[in-house]
UniProtKB/TrEMBL annotation:
Residues 40-67 form a coiled coil. Residues 7-89 form the Mff-like domain. It is a single-pass type IV membrane protein. InterPro entries: Mff-like_dom, Mff/Tango-11. This is Mitochondrial fission factor. The lineage of its organism: Eukaryota, Metazoa, Chordata, Craniata, Vertebrata. Belongs to the Tango11 family.
């Protein structure tokens, strides 16, 4: 019986703490603070900045891939030409 009582008390204590947390959540959500608006606006600005940076990085990556392809092509052409000239001797 003491086990049941502690379980019941533990459940009650857990329910009370959950109820208290849910009350806190509703009070925080229910009040339209200026801070939440400011936070949302600053988060939007940060997301826009991150999006711009990501776009720039993607463009730089594309340009780098093009440069690498050109350099690899030139290198392969150079070695093929050198090989052909060496075999021709």
């Amino acid at each position: 019986m003491s086990e049941n009582a502690t379980r019941q008390n533990g459940q009650l204590a857990r329910n009370d703490s959950l109820y208290g947390l849910s009350n806190m959540d509703t009070t925080l959500e229910g009040t339209p603070d200026d801070m939440t608006v400011v936070d949302a606006a600053s988060l939007r600005r940060q997301i826009i900045k991150l999006n711009r940076r990501l776009q720039l990085l993607e463009e730089e990556n594309k340009e780098r891939a093009k440069r690498e392809m050109i350099m690899y092509s030139i290198t392969v052409a150079f070695w093929l030409l050198n090989s052909w000239l060496w075999f021709r001797r």
